[in-house]
Amino acid sequence: MSTVFRCEALVTHAGAPVEFDMAIVVRDGAIARVLPFAELDPVQDEDSVTRLAGLTLPGLIDAHSHLRSAPAVHQAKLPNLVLEQWLYALGGLTDLPDLEDQRLAAHELVGAGITSAQILSHTWAGLPGRLSELSATIGAIRESGLRALLVLGLTDQAEFTPLPLPAELSAVEDPERGITASEWPELVERAAALVADPADRITLGVGPVAPQWCSDEALTAIALSRDGRRVHTHLHESPTQRTWLGDGESPIERLDRAGLLGEFTSAAHGVDLNDAEIERLAGAHATLVHCPVSNRTLGVGAANVAQWERHGVQTALGLDSQSRYRPDPFAEMRAARETANSRGQVLTATTVLEMATSGGAAALGIRAGALAPGMLADFVSLAFTDLDPVDSVDPALAGETIAERIVAEASPELVGTVVIGGTQHWPVSTDRLHELAKIERLLEALIRVDTDGRERRMTQRTETIDALAGVVGAGR
Predict the structure, then answer these.
(1) Span 31-64, pLDDT tens digits
(2) Residues of 43-82 as b/e, b for ≥16 C-beta within 10 angstroms?
(3) CA separation (Å) from 288 to 235, 266, 317, 356, 369?
(4) What is the arrangement of strands in the sheet containing 19-27, beginning at the earlier edge strand?
(5) CA–CA distance, 72 with 106 (Å, rounded to integer)
(6) Where are the extended beta strands (E) located within 209-248?
(7) Residue 134: which residues within 8 A CB-CB, separation 6 or more?
(8) Phi then psi for 35, rounded to 5 degrees?
């Protein structure tokens, strides 16, 4: 049994020219054929036909997400704080119900043209709480249709303050951690059971939330639990994090020493990497995930992506759940180019579109990012109405031309149809839209009602936030 999507126009991968009146034949959630529609055998191939107007392209991939909705992110915009202060200040924000927040967040991603996401899951809850939160996350992902690599994160040291502890931070109490390294194997085992459905689009990964935030015991526990799973982490997110433990060992060295660096690894941010470290990542065939909007928001600097590319590092793009109004992968692509320009470098439209498609597929370890036989049937249509066949006359130029237009002009508002595993998951029904709008209003109301309490919690943290400014060399 096959399903046929008839595409008004199509690009098979970043850098490919536009082709017109094309068919994508899908069987068992994967692409069986891509060919001109006129060449289809109507008896053998047209069990059903769905027309896709505009331009169809491979589904976009968010390679670094925390699955927070726009309302949740909106309250987390803490001005004039650098990363280390911002992390501590997060504890003063309003807790939102997991299921509602993540249901909205997952649908926001799909509605923005994102077909797959790598989601780092970490909270301070104990084992029962984390399993409950994971169940909510998994339910939200399944409901949206999103394909996901759900990464269990672990930390057990120095999340908010460096080691050794400076005198000005001596009164700061450690957070009450829910999961210890000894409990980690049970969490992984029970989480694996939650995503064991073979029909699921969810797979499980593991990782240190950041290598410097894990003791040797915790890194060993993560490595022992890998069992072929992919690893994802924050890596060298800011210059201060490089020396956060004060022992001369960098985060990438900790990751490598623990056996957690390889082709199975992806790492977000990478703002403070030197040539030798980038070569190390390239030699391990790891993927670096560029998060330009988040880097700018958190004041950590501009990642040298052109340098990554020169060393042959596979690169992907991540939104880091930092889109204040709605997730926008196209704005993230534009931000990647702007960041390169700020360093006097150039990233072509084709390069950033590759980062958002095939690069993301590499980060998640999935067969996606292009429209070809054997690839997952994940694609999105954009409401481009004035595509001209003349654009595809010169293949040497046409691919970059259409990539330039996608990056420069596209937005979530132009997303028409989102297909994941051969099934249409966007647009959703009117009833579902009303339900999502109701959830959004609920979350916004919870934040508004909690304004006084949130401000009180933030005030209680002010002295520590100020003290952290001295540690990291930045003011509020």
Answers:
(1) 999 999 999 987 555 558 999 999 999 999 999 9
(2) eebbeeeeebbbbbbbbbbbbbbbbbbbbbbebbebeebb
(3) 9, 6, 8, 12, 16
(4) 30-36, 19-27, 3-10, 49-58, 379-382, 415-420, 423-426
(5) 13
(6) 231-235
(7) 121, 150, 152, 191, 194
(8) -160, 165
d(CA 474, CA 81): 8
- Tell me the sheet residues that pair with 233: 267
Contact 105, 69 (CB under 8 A): yes
> CA 313 to CA 277: how far, in whole Å?
11
Angstrom distance (rounded) from CA 440 to CA 449 = 14
pLDDT at residue 476 is higher than 70: no
Residue 393 one-letter amino acid? V
CA nearest to 117, candidates 151, 148, 152, 153: 148
The values of phi and psi at residue 216, to 5°, are: -60, -40
Q: What is the mean pLDDT of the chain?
A: 93
Looking at per-residue pLDDT, the higher value among 452 and 356 belongs to 356
Give the E-state strand segments of 404-465 in sequence order. 415-420, 423-426
Token readout for 368 is 């996606």
Residue 427: is the preceding peptide bond cis (ω within 30°)? Answer: yes
3-state secondary structure 107-161: HHHHHCCEEEEEEEECCCCCHHHHHHHHHHHHHHHHHHCCEEEEEEEECCCCCCC
Distance between CA atoms of residues 141 and 206, nearest Å: 18
Task: Tell me if 12 sits within 8 A of 370, measured CB to CB.
Answer: yes
The SS3 assignment for 27 reads strand
| pLDDT digits 0-9 by tens, 102-128 | 999 999 999 999 999 999 999 889 999
Q: What b-and-e string marks burial along 337-370, b requiring 16 or more CB atoms within 10 Å of the CB?
A: bebbeeeebebbbbbbbbbbbbbbbbbbbbebbb
Please state the rounded mean pLDDT for residues 272-292. 98
**Whole-model pTM over 0.70:** yes
How far apart, in whole angstroms, are the C-alpha atoms of residue 204 and residue 54? Answer: 35
394: confidence class by pLDDT, cuts 50, 70, 90: low
Token representation of residue 60 = 């976009």
DSSP state of 198: T
